[in-house]
Backbone:
């Protein structure tokens, strides 16, 4: 076994082959007509690739892990003469491989259709061009499992989670009127776990219903259902996926897959979510979204006035957040900061700590000139 196995480009293979034949950096550089620093950089890169999988002969590392994993930690037990007696290698799944697995599961959830081939849906006959309907998905925690005898609350799993959100959107679409634009606004933490290791973005272990791949497949099917229903009601559908503290990475691939899937559909717009701040304007309305984690209302206000100075002149200003799971609203400096209720029950940890809130989903209707026109709410009792 040698370094060639860990090369990722033809150029690296060319360099490493000469290196393993015994040539030094200078002679390799002369043979390939490049600088010595280029050779050194390429070999260092390949060595890092090898080390990530446990191969580094100069350090006595020969026990490797599969290509879908990388070495997280290794330790050994040595005798008095420095001879290795026993070695432990701890590996974890590579994030890049996790991403590929997630994308494949999501694709299956979208019924195996190809990029940009979302099925066309007939638009509504007539819509109100002055109105926008925002469907507020509070922290939904798809993939969480909750056991009633433990939490003293409703049970929760993937199937229940999907049914609740589909039923809620269906009821709100029915009563929301004929707004030109429908905004499906995921306020963050739509997914309970961030990756295949079933933890939050910070690494906290979670109670999950099943394998993450199944959750990812479910979210693909879920979004297709929700967006299809909204396209039947609204001329345009905007998708906003705010990055939460539970799913900061997962929400990125979710957004990219949706963008890919609807790339040829002129009636669907998927907003970028590379930043935790996402905004849109609607006539005299400015709406800024953030998950609400690790930030106070005053900081939200200060950041928005600083970063959205050009949009601030509008008469009606809103900041919509999630994270805290309960309803809260306050006005600071001419901007309303509002958090939204959720449909999910409490998990074991939060139930044990005494947390809880009423459960519902809301739809807010904005008028281009008048600001908030009306709002509708469906409570959990109507969805069970």
Residues:
């Amino acid at each position: 076994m040698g370094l060639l196995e860990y090369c990722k480009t033809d150029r690296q293979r060319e360099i490493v082959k000469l290196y393993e034949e015994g040539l030094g950096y200078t002679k390799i550089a002369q043979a390939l007509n490049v600088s010595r620093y280029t050779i050194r950089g390429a070999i260092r890169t390949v060595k890092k690739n090898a080390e990530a999988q446990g191969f580094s002969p100069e350090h006595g590392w020969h026990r490797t892990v599969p290509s879908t994993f990388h070495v997280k930690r290794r330790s050994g037990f040595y005798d008095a003469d420095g001879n290795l007696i026993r070695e432990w290698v701890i590996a974890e799944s590579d994030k890049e491989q996790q991403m590929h697995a997630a994308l494949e599961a999501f694709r299956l959830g979208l019924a195996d259709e190809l990029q940009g081939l979302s099925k066309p849906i007939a638009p509504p006959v007539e819509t109100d061009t002055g109105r926008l309907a925002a469907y507020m998905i509070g922290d939904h925690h798809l993939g969480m499992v909750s056991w009633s005898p433990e939490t003293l609350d409703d049970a929760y799993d993937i199937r229940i989670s999907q049914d609740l959100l589909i039923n809620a959107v269906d009821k709100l679409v029915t009563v929301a009127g004929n707004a030109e634009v429908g905004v499906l606004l995921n306020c963050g933490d739509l997914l309970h776990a961030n990756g295949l290791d079933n933890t939050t973005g910070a690494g906290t272990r979670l109670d999950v219903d099943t394998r993450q791949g199944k959750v990812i497949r479910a979210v693909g099917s879920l979004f297709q259902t929700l967006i299809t229903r909204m396209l039947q009601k609204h001329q345009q559908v905007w998708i906003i996926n705010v990055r939460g503290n539970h799913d900061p990475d997962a929400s990125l691939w979710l957004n990219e897959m949706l963008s890919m899937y609807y790339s040829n559909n002129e009636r669907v717009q998927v907003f970028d979510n590379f930043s935790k701040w996402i905004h849109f304007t609607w006539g005299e309305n400015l709406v800024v979204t953030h998950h609400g984690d690790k930030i106070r209302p005053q900081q939200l206000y200060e950041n928005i006035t600083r970063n959205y100075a050009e949009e601030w002149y509008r008469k009606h200003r809103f900041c919509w957040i999630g994270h805290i799971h309960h309803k809260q609203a306050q006005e600071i400096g001419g901007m309303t900061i509002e958090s939204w209720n959720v449909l999910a029950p409490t998990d074991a940890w939060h139930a044990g700590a005494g947390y809880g809130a009423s459960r519902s989903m809301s739809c807010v209707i904005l008028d281009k000139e008048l600001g908030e026109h009306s709002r509708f709410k469906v409570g959990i009792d109507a969805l069970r």
